Amino acid sequence: MTDYDLIVRNGLVYDGLGGPPVRADIGIKDGMIAHIGDIAGPAAEAIDAAGKIVTPGFVDIHTHFDGQATWENRMVPSSNHGVTTVVMGNCGVGFAPCKPDQRDMLVAVMEGVEDVPEVVMTEGLPWSWETFPEFLDVLDTRHYDVDIAAQLPHSALRVYVMGDRAAAHEPPSAKDLEQMRALTREAIEAGAIGVSTSRNMMHRTKAGALAPSLFSEEDELKALATGLRDAGTGVYQIIPRVTGSAVDEFALMERIASVAERPLSYSLLQMPAGDPDEWRVSLDALTAANDRGLTMKAQVAPRPVGMLYGLDLSFHPFSLHPSFRPLLDKPLAEKVAAMRDPAFRAQLLSEEPEDSNPVSVKTVIASRFAYPMGDVPVYEPDLADRIDNRAAALGVTWQEHAYDLLLEQEGRAILYQPGANYRDGNLDAVWEMLTHRDTIVALADGGAHYGMICDASFPTFYLSRWARDAAADQRIALETAVAALSSVPADAVGLGDRGRLVAGAKADINIIDLEGLALHAPTVAHDLPAGGRRLRQLADGYVATIVSGVVTYRQGLATDALPGRLVRGCRAIAAL
């Protein structure tokens, strides 16, 4: 009989708590870390990590795998980037609770807010639940390549309680509020890790209707908070409004956190328009709130949050032009053939985008500020390479230049528009947000924006860009960076049993070749239900990823193992 199921030998171990690295072996038994140090005893399996860094598995607290977790077992692309635990149900959108006659409404909201095609959900969702506890029970029967935790989404809850009145944005009655409070408590007690909502006016259905949660008044937001307080555990996640007064919006979040008596986190970005100092105002308010005894965190991104445009993606500069609409669902080769017709080109270039959803129109118009992504993805592009500037240098319109770029690589070319976090043409604001004491690396959105955004690669970018390649005055110490991807997000949602390499912790581990860590360019795969499209992004440098002591990825390739499970509620480290 062996002493350990698995030993990771000779690696440079980063504990995920910010401590200095130590060269050591890690012994794993029954899915837990049993010992860290010099281990001479036998094991069923050993992995030589000499010359590599060994970190805890990464914890991603901002994903939208609510649908994907019901129809497949691999939470890609997040699990391709060292992530071993994901938290879904963010931004107030999801699929439970839901009565049978409300399914179409929730599908429409998810399609518009998170760019999950309707046909994918219609084909993929089993709808074998109605209440949120029943949804968790369904997830509990499934096996994954990561652990998953779920939050109760406000829009689904509002529709469940109020029916059509929710979509019409009518105010709730006192009875409605009491039911929302009770159902929030019920969800948390069943194992939900928190509750989420959105106040972002860009969150709409594909047709342009606002998501049900957007006009909720303070009393409704506090009803959710009171449900958390009743349960005595859980977190509150919110997408604040990005229009109006940042001071007023933060004050509202403070009041919610005070009522909940639970941790609250919110999304924070440097917006491309409006008050250039709004994000700093928010950080200052965040510091003051935590100094007063509240527990509030800002979820921030480690690079620009950018749109991807392409002929095989959700949007491109001509996707909403009348002449292109008949081609939207055609195979890529058919689109390319049509666009190579000079007469079609002339017609398309003469038109403007048209759509009932103003956000979609703005998204298409913003493609003029995109850059060619290239075979090696560039997330800090030079202003001179922006499409409109390249077009001016060539003496053509930006639309003409974009048209030509889209036809490169037989129509597979991708254009990248760094929207938020790149207002100044650099990542200085990102560095300030990342290094603030009360922020969390998040906003990767895995499981969402299948044809628009591919930010689930955030962990790989963060480690390589900020801990390895940054200039000395902005380089983040590797031990700090590892903690930022592991124990900090884990602790923020009450998962203290992971995100750290210490005896008694869950054996979620990455073995990484730091010097070889590199991102591939995003590619398109049609492997969702009903042949739906999604963006995938791979990386080099992940020697092995381990979940609950079982190797799930070797050299970036999936094994057959699916040790991931549903995580119900908060977890503490095991006593040995």
Keywords:
alpha/beta, 9-stranded mixed sheet, single chain, 19 helices, 576 residues, 31% helix, 8-stranded parallel sheet
Summary?
This protein has 576 residues and is α/β, with parallel strands linked by helices.
Biggest sheet features: 9 strands, mixed
Number of helices: 19
| Mean pLDDT, all residues | 94
What is the terminal separation in angstroms? 20 Å
**What's the number of extended β-strand segments?**
24
Report the uncertain regions: none
Tell me, what's the shape? Answer: globular
**Helical fraction:** 25-40%
Radius of gyration: 23 Å
Describe it.
This protein is α/β, with parallel strands linked by helices and 576 residues long. Helices cover 31% and strands 19% of the residues. Strands 1, 2, 3, 4, 5, 17, 22, 23 and 24 form a nine-stranded mixed beta sheet that branches.
Give the topology.
Layout: E1 6-13, E2 22-29, E3 32-37, E4 46-48, E5 53-56, E6 58-60, H1 68-71, E7 83-88, H2 103-114, H3 118-124, H4 132-139, E8 147-153, H5 154-162, H6 164-167, H7 174-190, E9 194-198, H8 218-231, E10 235-239, H9 246-260, E11 264-267, H10 278-291, E12 296-300, E13 305-309, H11 332-339, H12 342-349, H13 358-365, E14 371-372, H14 387-394, H15 398-406, E15 415-420, H16 428-434, E16 439-441, H17 458-468, H18 478-485, H19 487-492, E17 509-512, E18 518-519, E19 523-528, E20 532-536, E21 539-540, E22 542-547, E23 550-554, E24 557-558
Parallel strand pairs: 1-4, 1-5, 6-7, 7-8, 8-9, 9-10, 10-11, 11-12, 12-16
Antiparallel strand pairs: 1-2, 2-3, 5-17, 13-15, 14-15, 17-22, 18-21, 19-20, 22-23, 23-24
